Amino acid sequence: MDRRTFLAAAGTGSLIATAGCAGDDDDGDDSLSVGMIYSTGGLGDESFNDMAHQGIQEAESDFGISFQNAEPDAPADMDEMQRQFAGDDNIDAVVCIGFDHEADLEANAAEFADTSFVLVDAVVEADNVANYLFREHEGSFQVGYLAGLLTGMEYGHGGGATDPDESTVGFVGGEEIALIERFEAGYIAGAQHADADIETPSSYAGSWNDPTTGQEIASSMYDDGADVVYHAAGGTGGGVFEAAQSAGRYAIGVDDDQSRSAAAFSDVIVASMIKRVDTAVYESVEAIVNDEFEGGQINDLGLEEDGVGAIIGQDFEDDLPAEIVDELEASRQAIIDGDIDVPDTLDDL
Amino acid sequence: MSAGRDRVEATLDRLVDASVLERLQISLAALVFAIIVGAVLVFVSGLIVDCPDPFLSLPGVGGACYNPFEVYWTMITGSFGSLTALGRTLQETTLLLFTGLSVAVAFRAGLFNIGTQGQMILGALGAALTALWLGELVPESLLGALIVIPAGVVVGAVIGGLWGMLPGLMKAYADAHEVITTIMLNFIAMGIAFWLVQNHVGNLESDSVLTHTIPDVAQLSPTIGGTRFSLWALLAALAAAIGIYVLYDRTILGYELRTSGLQEAAAEYGGVNAKRNIVTSMTLSGALGGIAGSIYVLMVQYRWQDGIPPLGFDGIAVSILAGNNPIGVIPAAVLFGAMQSGSVALNLTLGVPPELVEVLRGLIILFIAMPEFFRMIGKRYGYGSDPLATDGGENV
């Protein structure tokens, strides 16, 4: 109740005061306040959105900022939420998580020129928008390579085992869009780097929060002999892990270290393609706090910048054969050095 | 056993015979109950979650994070508390008026159109493409707007109408139940629109599935600054409600439309072409759904994008709440619009998760709609003092 009353008072205050100080970040002793708008996968996806939430929470404890969350039900809500936060005198910066924000932010960044925006996974070219992109294909190559190496050998640990007779690794995507195609292309290229004849079935669930469909797709892939299935499908991926457990095979998580964020499945999550959305959010807030915010820039984060990468699942850290770990480190270095060219579309495979 | 049954029958009789005033009282009482139950629910769920500063600490239980009074107050101020909040409410109201009318029109003819959502999605796409195409050709002036906006609405209505006509034809000539066909056609409509936009008519550079933004001349300019609400659209929606009321209750065609759906054989015997009227009702219903989609594109989103909100499904609840009366749809749409915009404010300012807000909305809908729903069922099975067949689905 206290906070509300204070906010109301502050709001009235700035209404009475002249419009001159609107958008001025350091009026009075008020600390930075950030509006967070997530993607439609929503908080609790143990992946993309939760990573962003983690980043802002770290920023909160390190810099003493405050933040408000908004979770859109559909892309249609994003416009309203952006406008509400941007028009709110108590909000200094708005962080938009996910590519669906792009079209609305293009218009709103121009309309609310005094507000600083951060956009993850898409680019809006405006002076008050800082953009963060990831080279997901590089990280996906790494987990694809791991999957390819695993399916080619006989391996059993935790809640699963590979089928030595089959050489198949699967991919489950959320919606079939260029962004997720980058994951798919990198993953397949990585698997083929291990073994050119490997089978790589892939399928799309058509949604970011439909675990049932995710489970059906993954189950049929495991039935057809897949040893490992990698998902880039947000909340839909939960179904992939379920399927892995009941089939006794392996899965690869995405965005977060899902062997920890979805710890109930840590016995089958052999690795995760980590995408440091948390770092992106944290660093963007840090820049605003230090008055170093640079609108209009595009931060492109790949293996070299530690923006993406393969992280071994917590149950598998000490168990994976050393040669696999060495191979992964070698391919990581080769990608950074430019010796391996990772495709970012299926056409370039 | 039979005493219980008698009680149920007596209650149904009473519900069916309730006068307008009594039904209003029932609805208000239901609203109060829903608010009380919702308050308890909000309070209890606030005990479960963790938050840094609970408004109330209960020894042994923990801190309560959500204050029910604050939650309801935020909902009210979020929907009527400021000019922008009011604009947001009226924006939702306008759209729900059209979808609610769409469902009500079919209901009055005894047809259950679950397909408003699909009709709306295709109508929206038609309007968006029309606006994109015509917007380039017309001058950037009021004249241009007067050409392109009505054109968008008409195209949306025609496409929605045709999509509604399909299940009408299937019902009239192939005896396919409209509930099944309209549900299925929703999926087909979504699939067609998604595929078209993603692969052919949309913005192919974007990762999102969307069309380009329609030009300024095609956008219904907001009446209240900072919102996406146009008074003209609301006036058109109100005119549609009155027009449909007049059509169904004051004209011969309306009478025929009602009887054809309710008592096909009797209508045929009375010299009415019942099959054609079923098709007409569904087409009219679909056209209203299509208009809802057009207005959504021209007034709110300025483009077609995958993930259009479920206004078509909300329209079903709006219509039931209104007892399928076109005039009753107006207050029902206001209530739903207010709850929608209030829940956005709730999510933004108090951090109450959207799922809990949905539960609150659901409770209010459930409590208010249930007596009305039982009344309709009771009426269907001949309870109350006026028998069904003669009233042509009239509720007032």
From TrEMBL, chain A:
Membrane topology type, per the record?
Lipid-anchor
Presence of keyword Cell membrane: yes
What are the protein's UniProt keywords? Cell membrane, Lipoprotein, Membrane, Signal
Question: Ranges for the ABC transporter substrate-binding protein PnrA-like domain?
Answer: 35-344
The record's principal subcellular location, in a coarse class, is membrane
Q: Which GO terms describe its cellular component?
A: plasma membrane
- Cellular compartment(s): Cell membrane
SUPFAM superfamilies assigned? Periplasmic binding protein-like I
PROSITE patterns this protein is in? PROKAR_LIPOPROTEIN
InterPro entries to which the protein is assigned, alphabetical: BMP_lipoprotein, Peripla_BP_I, PnrA-like
Assigned protein family = Belongs to the BMP lipoprotein family.
This protein is called what?
Nucleoside-binding protein
What organism is this sequence from?
Answer: Halorubrum vacuolatum (Natronobacterium vacuolatum)
Automatic annotation (TrEMBL), chain B:
Entries under CDD domains matching the protein:
TM_PBP1_transp_TpRbsC_like
Look up and give the membrane topology term. Multi-pass membrane protein
Transmembrane segment boundaries:
28-49, 69-87, 94-112, 142-166, 178-197, 229-248, 278-299, 311-339
Q: Which GO terms describe its cellular component?
A: plasma membrane
What GO molecular-function term can you cite, just one?
Answer: transmembrane transporter activity
Q: Where in the cell is it found?
A: Cell membrane
Keyword Transmembrane appears in the UniProt entry? yes
InterPro entries, per database record: ABC_transp_permease
Q: Main site of residence?
A: membrane
Can the keyword Membrane be found in this entry's annotation?
Answer: yes
UniProt keywords, alphabetically: Cell membrane, Membrane, Transmembrane, Transmembrane helix
Coiled-coil regions listed: none
Q: Which PANTHER family match?
A: ABC TRANSPORTER, PERMEASE PROTEIN (PTHR47089), GUANOSINE ABC TRANSPORTER PERMEASE PROTEIN NUPP (PTHR47089:SF1)
The protein, known as:
Nucleoside ABC transporter membrane protein
What is the species listed in this Swiss-Prot or TrEMBL entry?
A: Halorubrum vacuolatum (Natronobacterium vacuolatum)
